[in-house]
Amino acid sequence: MAGDRLPGARALALHYGVPLAAANEARRSLERLGLVVTVPRVGAVVTSRGLPPPIPAPAEAAHPSALRRPEMLRAAIRVAEVQGLAAVSMRSVALAMGVPVLSLYRLARTREELVLAMMAAVFAERPLPKPAPSGTRARLELVLHAEWDVYRRHPWLGRAPAGDTRLFGHAEWLHRALRDHALDASTLLQIELTLSSFVRGFALRLDAADVESSFAFGMARLIDGLVAFLETPHDRRPPRS
To answer: Omega before 54 cis (within 30°)?
Structure first.
């Protein structure tokens, strides 16, 4: 309404789920159209010409007890996309949802639990086929391409806590895909960590001009080595150091 303060660009980006740059440009456009004026010591204020009605908040926001985990995860992922993973907290997610902070603690007890759930949610967006394609190389290529796709869609994922085996989002699929090689649990874990570290390393340099070609080259060489290892008879494999 006229006279109301316009939220900051960051708050607008979170509320409407758009990039911060888009929110800043929208504010500038409103000022150019005379719909918003800047008042000293107050900030941006809506003029008498008014603004279009805002998108209504979800029904869950009015009833915190009705909140569901998927709604919380969508809001948390939106915060991470706009502001980066470091900005994700119970408070920032509650602000994005328009609900009390305490209402989220029944859905996630800690920030660490929230981030792990966010990771699981984005990996679930990229399911892998069942059954797996034939051939060890084809299976490794498929799972690495899938992981890379998730990291490219969600750059904040590269900043997620390292050292957790669940970081490799398609681990269960990989276990099934490699079961013909009769790997012990320790070796399978080492393969998971190797693949995960490879993808994560490139995810930290997504802005590099040559990242796609470098990833493709490195993936091919990594798979060359893993296929050679996996196809070597068990009793002839070199011991792990």
So the answer is: no
**CB < 8 Å & 24+ apart, contacts of 179-188:** 181/136, 181/230, 182/234, 183/230, 186/240, 187/240
Cα dihedral: 107, 168, 164, 116 (round 10): -10
**Domains of the chain as residue ranges with CATH:** 1-55 (1.10.10.10), 59-124 (1.10.10.60), 136-236 (no CATH)
Mean pLDDT per 10-residue interval, the chain, length 241 residues: 65 73 74 65 57 42 67 94 92 90 90 91 89 92 93 90 60 87 88 90 91 96 95 70 58
**For residue 149, what are its two tokens?**
């796709």
